[in-house]
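Reminder: ligand-aware prediction takes two inputs, not one.
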Amino acid sequence: MPLVQHPHCINGTSRKDAAMRTDPMYPTELTEEESGLGYQLALVGNPRRVFSGNSSLMPVVLYSVGPLSCIFKTRDSDGNILYSHRQHGDFGKSDRAEWNPVLVPVPSPADAIRIAKEGLDAQLAARQGLGIDPAMPALDLQCPACHYPFSVRKDFLGIGEVVVCTKCSRAHSAKDCAS
Ligand SMILES: [Zn+2]
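Here is what comes back for the chain with zinc ion:
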């Protein structure tokens, strides 16, 4: 599946690198099981630009549990696929806010959803002093209409979702990108 569907109205155009590379730690294959459970391929912020080259966004398979709460499909160094419930925020110190793991990842995509929805992992993490102070992510984008960089506060961008800067948002609508 191409991540970029229209050359002039690129969904979530990342600064520096529109043709994003995938990262081995974040496999982008969406299985039928994952899709059936509600997982999707989406674009999230690329913390400190360490993943997938230098782009400001990176593609991941995720399940949206709720605001600031997602399950990420990950691959560990042994090649095992694990599903990691994460919340966007910091650990209450001077850490930079990012998608921090709530607790240890699990191998089943369905279990990950069940555990995250029960909220027991977050409660346990908080009791262990691992609670995360929530903070809304800021995605650094390049406006597909005027090409100026701008920032939008959003958990993630769906594939095909078009976001333009506030100046262009009146003059430019998603239907302009339909063809
Ligand atoms: Zn613009």
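DSSP finds four helices and nine strands in the chain. Residues 17 and 55 are 5 Å apart (CA to CA). We will return to this case in the review session.
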